[in-house]
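step: validate -> pass
step: tokenize input -> pass
step: predict -> running
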Amino acid sequence: MHHLHTGIWPVLLLGAGCLAGFARGAAPAERPNLVVFLSDDHSLLDSTVYGARDLQTPNMERVAAAGMTFERAFVASPSCAPSRAALLTGLMPVRNGAEANHSRPRPELKKLPAYLKELGYEVVAFGKVSHYQHTGDYGFDHFAHDRFHEDVAVPAAIQWLRARKSRRPLAFLVGTNWPHVPWPETGEGYEPAGVRVPANHVDTPRTRESRARYYAAVGRMDRELGEVF
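step: predict -> pass
step: emit ->
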């Protein structure tokens, strides 16, 4: 199997209760495949889908043009572990127990993979879907490459998908590490001298270099998104 071009619902955030309602009553073979792609430390302001003009995210634009975008969707926390735990439990940090960064939700909670499995899905995660090395806590059927900046995660996910033979509906969660630091060593086409420095930043050569490298990291994220979709 190659990229899942048909029968896909690309999703950014999906509550378990809402998912159960949407699929209730349908036979497993009739249910759509689900793909969740997560970027890491990526600002909405640095996406052309939401008006950014200082960098290019063409694959985000392509996926958005085929579906919908959200104007009032917010993460549950500004920290990594709590926001990912909220995604995978459907509960706010204060209710799932993962409030501080690097923390885990309460083990007795029923999590998103369990709801999906009840609906007949095979639930698979590659890369940084939960917080680093917490992935095993969530009950995925298969997961891999969840350590810090394991940049082989997306190629491995695609390789796994191409080799898959199962006819079960698939919930496929892929997390890239980009644009989380460490950023690429160069701007990869973004020249520091040409970077627009926001008004609330101190305009120094180091600021410009860092911003160019961050844009390069966003570009890598967008390319990986294009490989998945």
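step: describe -> The chain has one domain: 8-228.
step: cleanup -> pass
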